[in-house]
Automatic annotation (TrEMBL):
GO terms for molecular function: triose-phosphate isomerase activity. This is Triosephosphate isomerase. GO terms for biological process: gluconeogenesis; glyceraldehyde-3-phosphate biosynthetic process; glycerol catabolic process; glycolytic process. It catalyses: D-glyceraldehyde 3-phosphate = dihydroxyacetone phosphate. Pathway: Carbohydrate biosynthesis; gluconeogenesis; Carbohydrate degradation; glycolysis; D-glyceraldehyde 3-phosphate from glycerone phosphate: step 1/1. Its EC number is 5.3.1.1. The lineage of its organism: Bacteria, Candidatus Babelota, Candidatus Babeliae, Candidatus Babeliales, Candidatus Chromulinivoraceae.
Length: 258
């Protein structure tokens, strides 16, 4: 039997959406009679802003999509003003949560240590963490890309040496210079990075539950070349994912999967 691997398409809506644009997205999806056919063998997730999770969690199963968060608190519920605890995210039935997105690292100054705490707490709650890593252009040009990626992963790799749970784990490689720029790395660069990442996880007890995603300027125009990298199990899609038709084209782009 021909086993077709599942492909993951995770929409990171950042703060692009409002309730009215989300309603338009849902209306557009309702008008697509072939949507359910399109997504056979695909997992479609939406990483929404906190304030939209409650609205979306009531709609998401009809959309045949999964719901996730863009971040979470590293604290248990308590006196933590402005934080959103994993427990409250569980009330929204989220399936996954981004951690360490480069925008969060850059704008909120989150450390690798803090990010790894969130990662562990998500696993304890059976929510799939999507661990985002990526180098800057200067780091790439200095030949430091793989070292930077390793440093960002080190805490969680140490933790995963003794983790035996069955929750799926995602590592999303998002080079900083590719986010929102229309640039995607060359196939050679991607091959090098994903082979390196795979080599880091292959000795872990849960290696088979670790999926690799690529993010950074994924669109219906760029996605075709990305399908050729066999280590990539799916995509983390920013701006292009807020338009339902564009998201659909991206999902349909991998003719082998539908
Ligand atoms: O940051 C990203 C996904 O997490 C990528 O954003 P863009 O797809 O808009 O480049």
């Amino acid at each position: 039997m021909n086993h077709i691997p599942k492909k993951y398409y995770i929409a990171n809506w950042k703060t692009y959406q409002s309730i009215s644009t989300i309603k338009r997205f849902i209306q557009a999806s309702n008008q697509e009679a072939d949507w359910h056919e399109t997504i056979i063998n695909s997992y479609i997730g939406i990483a929404a802003s906190y304030e939209h999770l409650y609205y979306l969690h009531k709609k998401i199963s009809k959309l045949a999509m999964h719901l996730g968060s863009q971040d979470c608190s590293a604290f248990l519920p308590g006196a933590y003003t402005g934080q959103v605890s994993i427990e409250s995210l569980q009330d929204m039935n989220i399936s996954f949560c981004l951690v360490g997105h480069s925008e969060v690292r850059a704008e909120l100054g989150q450390s690798d240590m803090l990010i790894s705490s969130k990662f562990k707490m998500l696993l304890a709650a059976n929510i799939s963490p999507i661990m985002c890593i990526g180098e800057t252009l200067a780091q790439k040009n200095d030949g430091m890309a793989l070292q930077v990626l390793y440093d960002q992963l080190e805490h969680i790799l140490n933790f995963l040496q003794s983790y035996t749970g069955s929750t799926k784990i995602f590592i999303a490689y998002e080079p900083r210079y590719c986010i929102g720029t229309g640039i995607v790395p060359s196939s050679d660069d991607l091959q090098k990075v994903f082979c390196f990442l795979k080599s880091l996880v292959q000795q872990l007890p849960i290696a088979k539950n670790v999926m690799f995603l690529y993010g950074g300027s994924v669109s219906s125009k760029t996605v075709q070349q990305l399908h050729d990298i066999k280590e990539i199990s799916g995509f983390l899609i920013g701006k292009a994912s807020i338009d339902f038709q564009e998201l659909k084209k991206i999902v349909q782009s991998d003719g082998r999967m539908v």
